[in-house]
Write a structure and sequence with these properties.
There is one protein chain. The protein is an alpha/beta fold. It has one domain: 5'-nuclease (Rossmann fold, 3-Layer(aba) Sandwich), CATH 3.40.50.1010. A three-stranded parallel β-sheet has the order 1-2-3.
Length: 82
């Protein structure tokens, strides 16, 4: 099964229980995260942290940061090939 690229919208929906897509995001993370199928970029990682911090506060942002250290989502660095 191919990997799923996780964007900022999905990370935010997972962090915000009041978001209309929270249940769907949670289901995907629970089903595919343990299988190692979720990937993102370092840019999305930081953008998501900033959005969560701005809307939900520092505590929620740090919870997201700590969860990202669990290897449920593989984070790739953005590089330039010239």
């Amino acid at each position: 099964m191919p990997a799923i690229f996780v964007d900022t919208g999905a990370f935010y929906a997972l962090a915000d229980a009041g978001d209309r897509n929270h249940s769907t995001a949670r289901s995907v993370f629970e089903a595919r995260g343990m299988a190692g199928d979720l990937v993102t970029s370092d840019y999305v990682f930081v953008e998501s942290w900033c959005l969560i911090r701005a809307r939900l506060g520092r505590g929620a942002a740090m919870k997201y940061w700590d969860a990202m250290q669990s290897d449920v989502v593989t984070t790739y660095g953005v590089t330039s090939k010239e």
